[in-house]
UniProtKB/TrEMBL annotation:
This is mRNA export factor GLE1. The keyword Lipid metabolism does not apply. PANTHER family: GLE-1-RELATED (PTHR12960), MRNA EXPORT FACTOR GLE1 (PTHR12960:SF0). It is found in: Cytoplasm; Nucleus, Nuclear pore complex.
Amino acid sequence: MPSESLRWETLQALKNSPKGKISFDPFWLERGEPLLAGCKDSPSLSPIAGVILERLSSAPLQKSSSFLGSRSGDSSPVLSEVSISSTGSVADVSARTAAFSAAASVKNEREQSLSDKVKEESPEADVSGVSSPTSLPAISLLSPKAMEMAGCIIKVQEEHREKAKLALRVRQEMQEKLVAAVASAESEQLKRFEELMELKQRQEYQSMRDMMERETKESIGRQEKLKEEQRRRITLVNLRLREAEQQRLREAELERQRQAEGRERLRSLNSIQEEILQLNQLLEPSTQTKTDLPPASLSSYSTRGNQLCSQVSEVVRKTAEGNFPSLEDMTVAERALHEMRALIRLMQEEAANVREKKKKEQEQEEERRKQAELLAKQEGEKKAAQLAKEKAQRKGLQNSAEDVTLKWYKDLQEAASRCAQSFEQLSSAKDGQTKKLKLELQKAATIPVSQIASNSGSQLREIFDKIDKLLSGRPVVSGGKSVSTSQHPQGLEFASYKLAEKFVKQGEEEVASHHEAAFPIAVVASGVWELHPQVGDLILAHLHKKCPYAIPHYPPMKEGTPVDEYQRILGYRVDDSGVEGQDSFLKRMSGMIRLYAAIIQLKWPYSSKQGPVPHGLNHGWRWLAQMLNMEPLADVTATLLFDFLEVCGNALMNQYRSQFWKLILLLKEEYFPRIEAVTSSGQMGSVIRLKQFLETSLQRRQISPPRGQLGSGFWRS
């Protein structure tokens, strides 16, 4: 039939098309190739298929379409759209075929993405739910062979689909087993983790318990150590208590011994005091009525004996306060006793020497009487000549001091020489201990004088007390050591001599540089002078020796006296480099005159004696009057008068009032022109100062108090 031939031609055309060249291989699955790779491709027709389809009639084509639909009931509805009208053109068929291919590819992509989502969301879903590959539109032919081939293909596809479902199911089971295994492993791992955490907690708990046990053991150990330390300390305290008790017993025993020794020393001290008092009675002038000693020697012995008694009485006074005498006190008392015995021996030896001298003097007295008768006539002639000379001198000014003043000056110098000779043994000692004692005594006498200043009254009082103790024979501390004049029989004379020398040296140096320093030095010197007159005489002797104008006296130059020696007598310093300059000389003389002018007007404010100053203003009046009776010296007289009046003028004015102003007027009108006459033009400085002072004083009828004078407020400081 022509229709069947057309169908076979169509089939032949399909066979020759790329789709028709697919070869079926039952071993695709074993090789791992995709089963439906060729079925998923979009079908395409050859251009000749359009010509073939035009020839087919519409009815047979419908039969074929219905038959194909009955053969494959699960074919896609898209296959119905593949039936192409024979009336359509080839271009329409091509267009519809392209649209069908595009629709099929879009549908496949949607189904593939949907199946992937279903697998991801529910891997355990039934395999039947997985969509099968989209059936490609096919044209069913009426050829039995073709139908058989199509059936075989469908059957193979069904088998492969079942195998795929089975494989998918197996895979799902494996996945479920794997998930179950993983879940089980995770559960086991979680259990192991929990066990590990429990183990760590147990270990930490155990470590905490171990640590607490260790701390408990350590605490117990520390408590044991503390208990042991407490026991050890208790033992030490007990030992110390026992030692303290033993020490107390030893101290009690020592105290008993000290009391016994103190009582013994007290008995010895009482016996020493008794013996010293008995020996001192032998030195009293009242008991020496039949002795041949001179009163001066008796007085010195008595003074020294009283000083030794005072030393012992000072030691006994300490014991009266309830204290036992110390070893040092006993040493002082024993030394005083030895010195008292030595004084008695010296007095007895001196008395014997005096008796021998008296015998010799009595023998020589007769010879002197004979010579006196011969010299009587010569003396009368000399006295007459001397009286005539004195009358001649009274008509004008003198060149030297009066005889009474010169005798007083010589007596002071002789007393100072005797004092220096009395401690010759101490001064020239060669043994180390005596030299050391001499040095300590000199320091104890001179250092306090160097410390005198106008800082406060309490300081001056301390210095005065220290000097008074030294001169009284009591021990004083000097340079950290205790020293006393009673340590040597010549200690008092040595200390007095050095003390007086230091006072004058302070005037020569300190007062010369600082005029206000004259008053604190002078008030201490005046207080010492009042209690110890021997020191005052030594001060005058040193002052007159260094400054003869303080007498006043202008020593004449004797024949045969070298110039250097005469300048020393006048007060100049002479050394290997020559004689000092005039300015330095005047400065030193000024300092000593200022010190002397301060001494004669000051009295120690804490003195227990009532009365005037030991060397008072009457000596200042005498000095000023004698200065005006002597010929002036160039530059010297004006300087000394100005310094003296500036320091002492106010005190003399208050003491002598109108008589003083008469003397000042005499000085201004009669004596001052003589000073100007002997003064050269280069030495007018001191003359001008004196003139201005006199004019101001006479004009104001008043002399101001000197600068640096110590007021009542000073002694309260």
